[in-house]
Design goal:
The structure holds two protein chains of two kinds.
Chain A: E1 4-9, E2 14-21, E3 26-33, H1 44-66, E4 73-81, H2 85-102, E5 106-110, H3 111-123, E6 129-133, E7 138-144, E8 147-153, H4 159-169, H5 177-184, E9 197-198, E10 201-202, H6 205-216, H7 221-247, E11 251-255, H8 262-274, E12 278-281, H9 284-287, H10 291-303
Parallel strand pairs in A: 1-4, 4-5, 6-11, 11-12
Antiparallel strand pairs in A: 1-2, 2-3, 6-7, 7-8, 9-10
Chain B: E1 2-6, E2 9-15, H1 24-47, E3 55-59, E4 64-68, E5 73-74, H2 83-102, E6 105-106, E7 115-118, E8 121-124, E9 131-132, H3 136-153, H4 158-191
Antiparallel strand pairs in B: 1-2, 2-4, 3-4, 5-7, 6-9, 7-8
The chains are: A alpha/beta, B alpha+beta.
Amino acid sequence: MKQYVLGVESTAHTFSVSIVSSDGRILCNAKAVYKPPEGSGIHPFEASQSHIAAAPKVLSEAISSSGVSLTDISAVSYAMGPGLGPCLRVGAVVARTLAASLDVPLVPVNHAIGHIELGCLLTGAADPVVLLVSGGHTMILAYSGNRWRVLGESLDLTLGQLLDQFGRYHGLASPCGRAIEEAGAKSRRYLRLPYTVKGNDVSFSGLLTASKLLLERGEPFHDVSYSIQETAFAMVTEVTERALAFTGKHEVMIVGGVAANRRLAEMMASMAERHAAVLSSVPLEYSGDCGAQIAWTGWLAHKSSIRVPVEESKVQQSWRLDRVDIPWRE
Amino acid sequence: MIQGVWQGLEAVFKVRRPLRYRLPVLDEEIRRQRTLHEAEMIHHSKSAGVAAPYLYDVDPPASTLVMEYVRGDRLKDAIPPRAEGTREVFREFGRNVGLLHRAGIMHGDLTTANVVRRKGGLVFIDFGLSIRTERLEDHAVDLRLIKETLLGAHPQVAPAAMEALNRGYAGVLGEARTKAVFRQLVSIERRGRYARVT
């Protein structure tokens, strides 16, 4: 019999509720996104207040648009981490309340695993090398021996942070990826910036400092946007290429908020072609943070009997995805 | 990598081909630089007592190196199934990394794909990301990549291998420096995203 799982996402700027069915259909994916003032980043407390205000509306919108009644839900999952404490707690409260009142299991989900599993569901990727790029993550991963293993990552800033901090320096509000992409598309003038690959890892802090300096020296924003993207994206594409060659896998998948960037996707496509690998990109609606990643991974975990008693359910601000056992994959 | 013959010798032609996803101006500079670096660092690593391929020819404009073809298996394909054999080979691995670091060389790309196991010992290849450095941080980054590769690709042998590597390394650099480098490695890991104490 078909089952339904409701998932709650609230790790950072997005509060989202989704219901999925056990056969992999996403019945709804309602969300509200907190927008910080221009020139600043996410303020965790402000974001959590925005989530609290948005929660009832998002929840009822999710339920009414899903066509499923709450009594049909077999489990409630929530993003237990990693993320911002105040934000995580809002989602946890909503999920606990629902699970307790419906008397169904409460399933903790790692947000990053959620990005990957939803990506696999939507693209049909079976055993990919994954580039996870967002505000919270910059990692190259592959599944082996019961866990997603980190083959490379950023040693300092994430790609999302690099773009956001650069954009905010220019006065934009986070997330700045879209604005930087649009500005960069207007330029073909490359300004030399540090390209830092250390083995399978990348480092962005020097690149950020150098890019800010170029702005200070009066270089136009669109030229620096172009240059920072060309440099940073080539770096992550190169380390992904190394991981692909090293593992000998035949699929590559990009997930996370920065996956929405077309220039990055273009570079990754060119790289994948060199290795005759199939590149999967998650559709825009689902590449960034959303409830569907938590609901779908919640279903997979529920199937493997992963659950937590309501009174013991916590949030974990720091929770690396390579610490999570994955019993549902072979 | 192309196998071929150079002046009658069996050789490998390592051609750094243009990467189409990288801007040409950036790409050419990176390829040229890594080719030159690699030639230089192969030479330095030998002075440090670490086996590396014979270098036959260097062609920077074509970003090509011509090198000895090293017969053997890449370590990633030759990890011994039993802990005992693993310890031996990783102690040797650690000893060699110790020799490089003592000579102020960071290999920069110490994955198990870049070490060839042949009769008589290990041969290190792929010095394209190598730099000359005495910094604790850089040496720790080298070890971090080994650990990352072991945990990522060979999780079943990782703990035993890291321990053996530590001992081989300490045999060259001494306990104090080894402790300091491994402490720095933990500090780098803590800087990693969402890391808890490891």
